[in-house]
Amino acid sequence: MNTLLDALSQGIAIGAVYAVIALGLAIIHAMSGVLNFAHGHLVVVAMYLALVVKDTWGLDPYAASIIVIPLMAVLGALLYLLIFRRLAGTHVLTAIQATLGIVFLVEGILLMTQGGQYKRTHTGIDGTSVALGPIDMDGREFVALVVALAASAILFWALGRTGYGRSVRAVVQNPRGAQLVGVHIHRIRIITFALGTALAGVAGILLVPGHAVHPGAGLAYTVTAILAFYLGGPGNLLGTFLGAILLGLAESIGAIYLPESSGFILPYLVVIFVILARPRGLFAKAVPA
Amino acid sequence: MTGRMIWIVLGMTAVLLIATTPGWLDAYYLGIVTTTLFFIGLASAWNIVGGMAGQFSLGNSLFVAMGSTVVSALITLHGWSLWPAVATGAAGSAVLAVGIGALMFRRQLPHLSFALVTLAFAEVGLLVITSMDALGAASGVVWSEPVLGIVDESAYLQAALALAVASVVISWLIHRSRLGHRMRAIRDDESAAAAIGTNLMLTKTLALVISAMLTSVVATFYANYVVFVDPNAFASPVTSISVILFVVLGGLGTVKGPVLGAGVLYPLAEILRGQYGDLPGLSNVVFGVAILLVVLFAPTGLSGLFGRLGESISSTLHRGDRPANRQVATTVERSPSGRSGHKAMERSEPTPPAHHLTEIEKS
């Protein structure tokens, strides 16, 4: 019983972090129509930035977020202005090819500046644990869970309840109409790219304490985020969130209950099954004809 | 016709020139030439399904793994002889391809779903291989002896050259065959292709099976050349993605695209890596920038670029093969931005032309 509870709590904690990555990917996709295969590499960039900040000023990775997250937002705006703006309206596969180019670019820059070896870091809360009723959670996991849920909640609130969110929804539904009623769509897109990349930064900060970083680690995060995005049904942010939680649960349950490394296969089996059974995702909206 | 003749003459000259390289190149550059030839084979094989039929498979690593890890494990760990093992690898790839086709091509799934499910299959394949002791698990397989009695560099070069030429010739035969026309019809507009009587599922599955078997055979010899078959290199989707990018850079869906893409970019990256060994990421940076530049500014790839150059020299030269050599990006483009991603994903392409939206946005 306790094993099951541990599996569930770990699964939800890692799933919540995946959700932050996937939500960033999803809002960027909603804005530009481009599925960013370099999104996981942006997470890795944030992880390296946290390491650099720690080495330079001795800041705890969590404290480094004050510097890292704004930097990531600026990076997102730059990516939009330099690359994604020009991809608007191209074929969906052409745009993917461009983002695969970004993958190589980012990985190359990280290799040149940071080297190819795995790096780890420590935080002030290593080894602590938090008791939640019958569950004992690792302190870093608990922080990741709380922050990731909060970040997702803030995103949903911002999109659903603020003027910015209304503009975003207008641009997603009908860019031309949005422009006609006075939405500055260029600015909305820049802000949304900054926001999506900043979310990748949040995820990077949450992942850096427990995970070894490597320049090539990004693709795995991208794959997870895209799979979550697809599980939930493209265009449905709540679906993306739930898809990511489902993937996290599949990962932790597979790791605990299935023999050896075959447990890692469980999330992929879930995805393959879902895409075949419901090609438009679990929570897809009815498709207009 | 003249344009095609020029390419054939150029190609044959290149083949003859490469065949003589063991005579005048040192071992280091000979190795680069050999590996480039293997990559030309892999790129041409992927191009059959990804470029010509427009099914953007990210799961080619499955077939590379089948040809490399599985075949080398059969030979070195289980004592099979060469040809039965190669045939088993190719047959296994074909079975996998038929299975994927049967699952994925039953209905018209959005393009991205196909890319994603094949990527998920590829990840599963990597995990299965790294956890199976019978396939060498994570530590991989080391070939105990060279196959075919190949012992020296020049024999490997000839084997690689033969495979590359075979892949290109097979691509060319498919490109001009009835099957090739059906594949391009599906790539350009699935509904229209179905309406004129093309069997979508059969055609797509055939493209995938041919691509898979060719990939598997090339991968076997490449793996034997490399000797140490590391699953994280051979069975990883990343290797397949770089092959895909060679094709994209060269020109999707054309016969010469994969040859130009892999033939120019692999040696470039390798020489950069050799020259600037103390800056390990430099070749990746150059590769990434090249991809971005090509996608943003020359969407028909190197072959399109060369084609346009040729045209400007003599406009009569390329009249014969121009229309057939157009690629996806030029035929299906410019849908209304913003929502275009959803649209392009949820329906089969092509999306309708833009309503001058981009002009308005710029103002």
What's the arrangement of secondary structure elements?
The complex is a heterodimer of chains A (289) and B (363).
Chain A: H1 2-32, H2 39-57, H3 61-87, H4 92-114, E1 129-132, E2 135-138, H5 139-161, H6 163-173, H7 175-180, H8 185-207, H9 218-232, H10 237-257, H11 266-277
Antiparallel strand pairs in A: 1-2
Helix pairs in contact in A: 1-5, 1-8, 1-9, 1-10, 2-3, 2-4, 2-8, 2-9, 3-8, 5-6, 5-8, 6-8, 9-10, 9-11, 10-11
Chain B: H1 2-19, H2 21-24, H3 27-52, H4 60-77, H5 82-104, H6 111-131, E1 141-142, H7 153-176, H8 178-188, H9 190-195, H10 200-226, E2 228-229, H11 231-234, H12 237-250, H13 256-275, H14 282-297, H15 301-313, H16 328-331, H17 340-346, H18 357-362
Antiparallel strand pairs in B: 1-2
Helix pairs in contact in B: 3-7, 3-10, 3-12, 3-13, 4-5, 4-6, 4-10, 4-12, 5-10, 7-8, 7-10, 8-10, 12-13, 13-14, 13-15
Q: What is this structure, in a nutshell?
A:
The complex is a heterodimer of chains A (289) and B (363). Chain A is 73% helix and 3% strand.
